[in-house]
Amino acid sequence: MKKPARAKRRKPNNAVITIRGRQYFEDFDDREQIELITDGRFERQGDAYVIVYDETEVTGLEGTRTTILVESNNRVTLTRVGDVSSSLVFEQGKRNSGLYNVEEGDMTLTVDAFKVINRLDDCGGSLFVDYQLELNSQFMSKNNFLIKIKEARPLT
Q1: What is the overall mean pLDDT for the chain?
Q2: What is the pTM of this model?
Q3: Which domain CATH number covers 74?
Q4: 86: part of which helix (H) or strand (E)?
Q5: Which domain covers residue 43, as residue numbers?
């Protein structure tokens, strides 16, 4: 007799994650800034680090889970799943395109990453990304975010 499938247990939160994001629009005088401090998960997977947190009304993406994979070559993949779904890749000096899925449909977002500074280690640290976004080949905004990880403890 087959054993019933067990639901995957979600790993507990083990970090305090601070995200500061800035977005500059066409004239660069018009800008938005957000700051989110939340509990989340931070762990090493092989030679990469993974950051996971739930978005809130502060970011306008409530109902969405964000996962950030930071590879040892400083390639950063930001994946959102939930009410808003997207997958964006940031590589310094490179342009990458991905889909952005919203109620209205899929759109193509192109990321032109100017700078990726990875100062993460097994105890936490920071990640800074400076980039430009194009939506369906039209300039959308210049952006940057700084993520700080504190109180990271190894998961048991």
Answers
A1: 85
A2: 0.82
A3: 2.40.128.20
A4: strand 85-90
A5: 15-150
